[in-house]
Amino acid sequence: MANRERNKKILLELVKQPDNSRCADCGEPEPDWASYKLGIFVCLNCSGIHRSLSSHVKSIRLDFWEDKLVEVITVLSNTLLLNCECFHIFTLIHSILREQWIRAKYERKEFTGETKYPPLPYTTGFYEGILLKKGKDNTQFLKRKFVLSEREFTLSYYNKEDESKGPKAVISIKDLNATFQPEKIGHPNGLQITYQDGDHTRNLYVYHERSEEIVTWYNAIRAARYAYLKTAYPTGSDEELLPMITRNYLKEGYMEKTGPMQTESFKRRWFILDSQNRKLLYFKGHLDAEELGAIFIGTESKGYSVKEWVPLNARGNKWKCGLMLETPERQFVFMCEQERDQREWLEVLRKVLSRPMSPQDYTSKQDFSVL
Fold first, then answer.
1. Is the pLDDT of residue 369 over 60?
2. For domain 1-83, is the CATH number 1.10.220.150?
3. Beta bridge partners of residue 265, listed in sequence order
């Protein structure tokens, strides 16, 4: 019993050290688990993946640790793994990314600094393969060939496997974004690719049956985006550029929308708040390929605001929890299904409103047309 309490105390002191105070894989603070095989401290979510890899994980609070195991983790801790995390353009948000990141580090050993042959796909500047893509005007997913070129800063895809007919679309990396959307797409490996097509925002919905393959595509896109940003902003630091590589949207969901006179019949629309670009986009449905319109969101000092609001002469709305987004050009009224949805939309919209505008935001505003 004395050894058990002593060893637990040692582990709890170790996990407080700066190198150990965050999960070695995802960065979550205050990890409660450790792998005595690898000598790392990890969070609950990451510990489950390590358990499937036979990394021998234990709870530092609940499990019994033998003296020799405590000695191993005391010597190793998280410090030996820090050198593996040099490929810093990765982020961990979704479970599929978490699992593949951990497998890449410990199972495939992709970040040891050694030269790999064949080279890792996301480090070559070129990647091609087959993804299942949703049709623009239907719900059918069909196999399509995709080609990513870092040299040309483009992502192309072909409707047929016969490349002689040329690509269906050549998409510039400049405004491209990729984010995992498993629930929205209805597949655990679902990826949403968004880009600018003239004045409109376009979405591609794709997936691959193998999680490693879709994560490779995600990382290849991120690598190409990083290369583009380094070219477009040569004096930009990694601290400035890394958040710009790809992003998850601040909030998505259905709201009812009325017209500019606020007397038109309400219609249900799918909204996406792209906080980085200060855009509130709306679509007819959640898997639409092209947005119907967008609202630029400036700052309160420039005449933008949001508040709870219920119009007096509403027609056709089934939902009762309203809000008004006001811009210098007009007022936009939306209805939410529940008060919780209303509160969440108000919170995230105010978050964007409170952020100062950058020089790029002012440029974007000049070229912007509202819905």
1. no
2. yes
3. 315
